[in-house]
# Entry
Amino acid sequence: MDGLRTPDGPCCDVFLTGTVFLDIIFTGLDSAPVRGTESWARGMGSSPGGVANMATALARLGLRTSLAAAFGDDHYGEYCWDALAHGEGIDLGMSHTVPGWHSPVTVSMAYEGERTMVSHGHEAPPPGGPDPFPYCPPRARAAIASLAPGRHQQWVESAARNGARVFADVGWDDTGRWDLASLADLEHCEAFLPNAEEAMRYTRTDCPRRAARKLADKVPLSVVTLGAEGAYAVDGGSGETAEVPAIAVEALDPTGAGDVFVAGFVTGTLADWPLADRLAFAGLTAALSVQEFGGSLSAPGWAEVGAWWQQVQGFDAQDQEALRRYAFLDALLPADARPWPLRRAVPTIGFKA
# Structure
């Protein structure tokens, strides 16, 4: 990214906005909690969650990240602010603390390769305007938006007008209509990254690859994540397609893996990597993240990517064709990179120094 940054260029690489949660994650459960019983988890971690997952993943890959979010003035809010601003170097200049407002909380239980979440929180009051999020985001090379049916976010249009490349994901449509036209801000997006189920429902298809091709008629680039099968992408302009299988790992906690995937894909896109390399890198970072507790603090940095690449090349039985898929990492990873001591999720919200 250093070659793209100029004194008169955007002040940040990526801008995003949303809700920050305090995540409490339980792992090592043998099964789903049973009604009327008490379950003990073998592992637990706490970390900033929600939009903090994506912001942290971007920052750990070296992108200058600006986040606009509300923070409670409780201990949870203080912890999340400190972890993001001081621990990860995320610019919170457009964020604000709300007096008397408590931080939203999510409890996530991971078992059998899946997770179940329970959340609680209240919408933050606006910081003095009619909308809680900025109408005029900072100049950025990219912006990441979370689309919702029937909701127009003026900042997305402003970011695109100011030159930001907008990447969008989407959540579950509780209305059940799955109407692509209801995603008002999709027209401002360069890339749309739904999962397979979401993509098929929005396009009324029964195949995620067919869904990706139909979505490429609506956005310049469609990327559909296929879970354990990897990801599939279609460039609507050139017609190029790419598919990369997932990396098999022993997952500890899948929380935030989708956010890490998007962060990896954005990184590769801003650096102008080939489409298949972007998919491979995004899948790799997501795979590394599920081996740690939590969403935000499980995100890997370049040291973790380098350690993985060095390790897999040392396996005698390694599939050489699969190894060549990641050969592009050789040109990216400095040989003398110093490990960055990343914060990881711990059972409490933080120990005193």
